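Private note to self, pasted from the team thread so I don't lose it. Backbone tokens:
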């Protein structure tokens, strides 16, 4: 009982201290949502930070805010079936610094499935709107199924696969695309380590 109370006290202390730490913030697209190249350019060309979780609501509605600590709220929304919702309006993306796409890959591989290409094609058009010397970092992320070492390697390979797709299909200069894999180290939903929302590719401009 004493050990339980000690653990609970530490958890509560962490929760109160968490707001003091500036959380990582991104725009997160759901599978099948429209991606506007102009929104992509606005996000990847911006150095400030904000966050929006693009919901299935109409464009006129205010996008649902998402913070990694709010895992329960995300679990409820992510359970909805994918829908083609309008991209967020420009003013909702104006202060964001990164965006995340739920790029689908073949099981246990880095092969991009055809369903993921529409969003990646729009992303590529957005990158082309950036300054010629701008750099975009492609970040691979996995869920926590499997070993740390395996997931790290898989995330790196998937980030490289996305880079290669952007280079080979859209002619983007490979020197402008950096890749990094984080494996399961940066889960969006730590309360559910195997959740699909944790499997994503994130893009950051610099």
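Design output:
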């Amino acid at each position: 009982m004493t050990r339980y109370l000690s653990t609970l006290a530490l958890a509560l202390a962490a929760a109160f201290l968490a707001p003091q730490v500036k959380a990582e913030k991104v725009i997160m697209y759901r599978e099948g949502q429209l991606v506007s190249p102009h929104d992509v350019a606005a996000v990847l060309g911006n150095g400030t930070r904000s966050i929006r979780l693009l919901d299935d609501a109409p464009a006129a509605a205010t996008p649902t805010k998402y913070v990694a600590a709010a895992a329960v709220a995300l679990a409820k929304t992510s359970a909805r079936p994918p829908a083609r919702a309008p991209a967020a309006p420009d003013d909702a993306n104006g202060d964001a610094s990164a965006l995340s796409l739920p790029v689908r890959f073949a099981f246990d591989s880095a092969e991009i499935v055809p369903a993921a290409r529409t969003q990646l094609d729009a992303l590529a058009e957005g990158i082309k709107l950036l300054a010629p010397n701008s750099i975009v970092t492609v970040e691979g992320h996995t869920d926590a199924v499997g070993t740390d070492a395996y997931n790290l390697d898989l995330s790196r390979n998937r980030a490289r696969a996305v880079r290669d797709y952007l280079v080979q299909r859209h002619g983007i200069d490979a020197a402008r695309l950096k890749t990094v894999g984080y494996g399961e180290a940066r889960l969006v939903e730590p309360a559910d380590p195997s959740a699909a929302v944790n499997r994503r590719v994130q893009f950051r401009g610099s």
